[in-house]
Amino acid sequence: MSDAPITLAIDRYDRLMPFHDRTVQPPAGLRLDVLQVGQENTQREGAHRHERMLQKGEFDAAEVSLSSYIAATAKGLPFTAIPVFPRRLFSMGQVFVNARSGINHPRELAGRKIGLQSFQTTLAVLAKGDMATEYGLALKEVHWFTRGAETIDAAPAPGYRIDRLAAGDNFIDALAAGRLDAIFYSRTPWKDPDPALPIRRLFANPEAEEQRYLATNGYWPIMHVVAIKREVAERRPDLPLLLLEAFRSAAEIADGYSDDPGWSRFAWSKYAREREAAALGAKLWPLGVAANRANLDRFIGYSLDQGIIDRRLAVEDLFHASMHTT
Fold first, then answer.
1. Does the predicted model carry a pTM greater than 0.85?
2. Between the CA atoms of 71, 74, 76 and 79, what dihedral angle is there, to the nearest 10 degrees?
3. Average pLDDT of the segment spanning 263-282
4. Which domains are assigned to the chain?
5. Is the distance from CB of 24 to CB of 14 less than 8 angstroms?
6. Cα-flanking dihedrals φ and ψ of residue 132, to 5°?
């Protein structure tokens, strides 16, 4: 067993703060060099975490896009993973339309121009799949526009019409000006609601749609997974289990943050927490393969349908062998 430090590149979400403030005590035999690396936003050790891991192998372990990791796995790239999922989002609240477009139902997106961060971005794959599966949108009747390059090269399934947004064209400005009719976006187009901005969410009550989705499907969709360089896992076969235990400890610490009603900067966060617990009840951040199998299997299906991968993967294909019974 080696005591060499493992570089771990993660975001600084509340559930990962125990790594950054060092309140997590890693299991014996594991030393971590925790790096704050953003994706779209620059943090202490920079940005573009997904590309730096999956294209360059810059870190021993890193939080990466689920979609790009699945694409990398299908291509046999030298990575494995543990069933830890630091970021989750429902797609319903991440579909935004031009307020003057007259679009009020996902099926009405057919024939329209829709912007994506990239065709492979996890939120984009999820939203496309959900809009088709849950609401009947014909995906191949949409004219798709991508803003950025794909992390892992993959040819979309035949029949999709995809173009790049004009060089220099801002994603949000294009939607506001009507050059796009909608965007599927993993962020929010406004810092605070702006009544003058001609952008709104597609769903008038996205929270209710998301509750329905959870009740029907039983899970909160996964956005990110923790990948490990295969050579590191081969050199340290104990590492996946040790990392899983460290993330489990971090989750337990983070669960207690909001016990203090003054912990958040938001005045009514304590009421939001109580409403969410009453409405959703179920544990929404499960670790392990078994508790996330249905979630992952459906996303693999979306990836295959859209051409992100060219063959069906089993859920176990995504994870180190020591993780299969978790």
1. yes
2. 50
3. 87
4. 5-88+222-321 (3.40.190.10), 92-217 (3.40.190.10)
5. no
6. -75, -50
